[in-house]
Amino acid sequence: MIIDCHGHYTTAPAALREYRAAQVEGLEDPGYRPMPADLGISDDEIRESLEGAQLKLQRERGTDLTIFSPRAAGMAHQDGDEPANRYWSEVCNDMIHRAVALYPDNFVGVCQLPQVPGTPPANCIPELVRCVEKLGFIGCNLNPDPTGGYWTDPPLFDRWWYPLYEKMCELDVPAMIHVSSSCNPHFHFTGAHYINGDTAAFMQLLTSDLFADFPSLKLIIPHGGGAAPFHWGRYRGLAQDMGRPPLDELLLENVFFDTCVYHQPGIDLLTRVIPAKNILFASEMVGAVRGIDPETGFPFDDTKRYIDAAGGLDAAEKQMIFEDNARRVFSRLGR
User: Fold this and answer.
1) Domains of the chain, with CATH numbers?
2) How many whole angstroms separate alpha carbon 114 and alpha carbon 212?
3) Whole-structure pTM over 0.90, yes or no?
4) Is residue 335 pLDDT above 80, yes or no?
5) pLDDT number for residue 280
6) Which residues are tagged catalytic?
């Protein structure tokens, strides 16, 4: 089986985004109180939104199961207050649940959290519990910067985050560290802010003893780990200069990287630098990069092709990347 650990419902029916737009617009009125959604989206509309996109690409590219979550840019935690973001997360997660119920052999759910800038992450625990215990989700997406590019909340190692980590460990679910849309004009959201977020998260973890406090915590840094694998010598040297343990001891029992790297040389470097046991197959298809690579004639985000062609990997390592690691990290998968 080939498990894609990084998929977003980027093709959801328009009524979902229209609800969020109305929410955000309403917040300008001091008397407005966000309310739960009544989207009126039918099962047939969900099927239509998936059949010509994610499901079609699964069949064409030879993948089997996608770990599926709400659209990352759509989380936009900076745009709402606590009630708005709570209702927005609930409706997005419910849409994922419906997609999984319609296609249980193709999708399994990961949830969006109702984060709010300046609000303790503990406020996300009820939605995490609902999604895991009632909806059968197997993980969550965690935004390290809910301000959308201004980074005013505490870093990931701060005790501000600890109640959420405690609940994640109790539930035995990992988090993918994934920023959302950028409201800082210096940072294009997919070209800069996403990679910045991945890299900043890695460095925060390097400088902390978070995993001494949470030895069973599992975190996935997407998009190939941002800059980290491609500057591994820099990070090894920084850790050494700071008197930190070697990176394999400090981080690689708890931190994992995905394969959303959209060219062969990048995947080749990733798989040479990072142990195969720490790499999860992923494509983020119908996501940030949707076009055809004119140099190869194939889609940029057909990442299975890159793993198949990675000469430094043996069959056992490819099996780890395609399936075994996802089952180990998302340990609720198949329960």
Assistant:
1) 3-329 (3.20.20.140)
2) 27
3) yes
4) no
5) 98
6) 284
Q: What b/e string do you get for 26-53 counting C-beta neighbours within 10 Å, with b at 16 or more?
A: ebeeeeeebeebebebeeeebeebbeeb
* Position 65 pLDDT exceeds 80: yes
Q: Angle, to 10 degrees, between the axis of helix 14-26 and the axis of helix 82-102? A: 170
Give the phi and the psi of residue 222 in degrees, each rounded to 5.
-80, -175
* Angle of helix 194-206 versus helix 232-241 axis, rounded to 10: 30
> What's the token pair of residue 138?
């197997």
Q: What is the largest CA-CA distance in the chain?
A: 61
